[in-house]
Amino acid sequence: MNRILLAVLVLVMVSLAIPAAHCAPAVSPSTTQFSLGLGFGPMYGNGGTNVEYHIDQQFTATAGLGLNGGGNWFAGARYYLKPEGRGIRARLTAGLSTDEGKFYDTDHGSTKAIFAVGGSLANADNGFRGIDFDLTTNGTLSIGYHF
After folding, report:
1. How far is CA 113 from CA 17, 131, 136, in A?
2. Per-domain residue ranges for the chain?
3. What confidence tens digit (pLDDT) does each residue in 39-87 have?
4. Residue 34 contacts by C-beta under 8 Å, 6 or more apart in sequence?
């Protein structure tokens, strides 16, 4: 598991180090580089916050931290299937998370890989602000709101 954690962290760090101009189309002027969300589920540390760094219109690095005192966290990357804009934007998420527990669970156990399919119901032209939802491969739901 330590090798998987190291590989994901290296991937996230490399993706942040490469300028967006070399990765894909640049983020448009209407898009902010960061968005902050609050919600429940593994993408939010089982009850907390999630931050996305927008590398371009379709790829983001994301991290979540639980605010329930349990030390739950999530780190990964998201790929949006269509560029920014209003409406539903489907996405794929991959990353690492503390073992999923309940909101109040402080005995979260080990770290594990998370894969999810979800989307964002964007209420802004930049496509990153709105209601977020993800369903992980083991059936856990994350839901929140990004500002």
Report:
1. 23, 24, 10
2. 2-20+34-146
3. 999 999 889 999 999 998 899 999 999 987 778 899 999 999 988 777 8
4. 51, 52, 53, 54
For residue 139, report the phi and psi dihedrals to the nearest 5 degrees.
90, 10
Per-residue DSSP letter, 28: P
Q: Which two tokens stand for residue 54?
A: 């927008």
Amino acid at 98: T
- How many Cβ atoms are within 10 Å of 75's Cβ, its own excluded? 18
Distance, CA of 49 to CA of 81 (rounded, Å): 23
Q: What are phi and psi of 17, to 5 degrees?
A: -80, -25
CATH class of the region 2-20+34-146: mainly beta
pTM reported for the whole predicted model: 0.72
